[in-house]
């Protein structure tokens, strides 16, 4: 496996020789069947090997975009998600043949199964799910959170997930170039800004909110989160079970992930009716795993506070990463939820 690094940073460098080293078998031929650009590049590769366990097509994910070298931390995080977290998590995720990070090249690559070939059903941000579907996925997330909830030793310097960044504080890493007045105002003036309440248009308010959420998040139950459970990163497997991919694991409050998933996955009308019951359902599921959470009223307060985090992610999410229609839909859903749950009032009391 000595030829695995350096990792390729150009699609043309994904050769049969490199794939042979990465997969640990002889790849006699390989050609690019499909390329999907985005935050990361998804590349479908048709290949012939001498290993009967490797299918005819595989998906390779990595940083092959103009912005990729600036987002190496995200590539590193996804590599860790498949290499270090997936083996101990109950989340249904794609089978992985290779996950590696090259610090010098600022590149991370994951080679995984082709879910299209397996026939799964991919979810889409513009097709909200039913409350029953969200409840089922919250049960799986509760089992995932239970693996690390309250285990501070897992995140200590010598812990197995010592590399995991703080969920809220990590936003500065993502947004250090966009949390400026001119850039922020550009997003506020866009379609997604128009879809949000003007109560949430102030950058000064949001910077103050980030500080409040950072302090608050360190006082409540924390676990290793999937980190990005919006509908575009989810699927339904052929047996009907919830599937997850594109994880960005961080350590953070479990209710931050619940608020992000519930609000992003439901139509606004359904969310208003069912969100409290869904938070209670998650609480019960986590209790089944042996973890006690605060009373429901306290959890709804946490839920209300962390809605602001999901709102900000999609308000400033570049259209290179998600189409404008998706960013707008999510911004509208989170803004609506913040109004319904008095997020401004809850944050003021933190």
Automatic annotation (TrEMBL):
Lineage of the organism: Bacteria, Pseudomonadati, Pseudomonadota, Alphaproteobacteria, Sphingomonadales
Name of the protein in question: Aminoglycoside phosphotransferase domain-containing protein
Domain of life: Bacteria
InterPro entries, alphabetized: EcKL, Kinase-like_dom_sf, Oxido-Kinase-like_Enzymes
């Amino acid at each position: 496996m000595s030829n695995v690094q350096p990792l390729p940073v150009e699609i043309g460098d994904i050769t049969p020789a490199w794939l042979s080293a990465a997969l640990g078998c002889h790849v006699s031929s390989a050609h690019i069947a499909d390329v999907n650009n985005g935050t990361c590049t998804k590349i479908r590769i048709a290949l012939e090997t001498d290993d009967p366990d490797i299918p005819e097509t595989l998906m390779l994910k990595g940083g092959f975009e103009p912005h990729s070298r600036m987002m190496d931390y995200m590539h590193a995080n996804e590599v860790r998600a498949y290499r270090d977290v997936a083996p101990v998590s109950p989340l249904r995720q794609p089978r992985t043949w290779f996950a590696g990070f090259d610090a010098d090249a600022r590149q991370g690559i994951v080679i995984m199964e082709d879910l299209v070939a397996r026939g799964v059903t991919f979810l889409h941000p513009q097709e909200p799910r039913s409350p029953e579907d969200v409840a089922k996925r919250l049960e799986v997330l509760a089992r995932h959170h239970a693996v690390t909830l309250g285990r501070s030793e897992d995140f200590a310097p010598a812990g197995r997930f010592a590399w995991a960044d703080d969920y809220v504080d990590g936003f500065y890493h993502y947004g250090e170039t966009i949390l400026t007045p001119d850039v922020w105002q550009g997003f506020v003036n866009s379609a997604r800004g128009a879809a949000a309440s003007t109560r949430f248009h102030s950058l000064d308010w949001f910077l103050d909110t980030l500080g409040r959420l950072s302090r608050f998040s360190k006082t409540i139950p924390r676990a290793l989160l999937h980190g990005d459970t919006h509908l575009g990163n989810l699927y339904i497997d052929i047996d009907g079970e919830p599937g997850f991919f594109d994880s960005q694991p961080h350590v953070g409050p479990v209710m931050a992930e619940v608020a992000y998933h519930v609000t992003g996955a439901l139509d606004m009308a359904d969310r208003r009716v069912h969100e409290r019951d869904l938070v209670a359902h998650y609480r019960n599921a986590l209790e089944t795993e042996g973890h006690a959470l605060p009373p429901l009223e306290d959890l709804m307060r946490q839920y209300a506070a962390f809605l602001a985090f999901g709102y900000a992610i999609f308000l400033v999410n570049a259209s290179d990463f998600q189409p404008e229609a998706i960013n707008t839909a999510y911004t509208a859903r989170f803004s609506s939820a913040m109004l319904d749950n008095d997020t401004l009032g809850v944050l003021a009391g933190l």
